[in-house]
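Per reviewer request, we include the raw input and output of the structure prediction for the construct analysed in the revised manuscript.
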Amino acid sequence: MVDTSRRTIADIVGPAFTIKSLSARFGKPESEIRAAIEAGDILSLPTTDGVNLMPASQFGPDGQPLPGLRVVLAELRRGHDDAWLHAQFLAAKSPLHDDRTIAGELRAGELLDVLALAIQTAEAWSA
């Protein structure tokens, strides 16, 4: 049996940025990042110590959110409004291609397929 009690955030959703580290990495003002979180443009994971973590997998190499991320997150919220659950969805192995995560599908431009998965997943969560 595998002991999952000691799993780290990186084990669950991969590497993540704080607001400060995202700002430093891509030169974005922290206020702009906070506004994007509030608008639902990027996924932010609240922690018990009050830090917001943003999975790195949701950003392209230029620091912009992956194309279509906002609409996918909005669809997932319809099913269940839990950022940690949404992060796990994005980090999950894709049923479309064995070598990609769902976030990887977005990165590859497969928005319509990812959106269909998000709709299906949201419906299952709300059932």
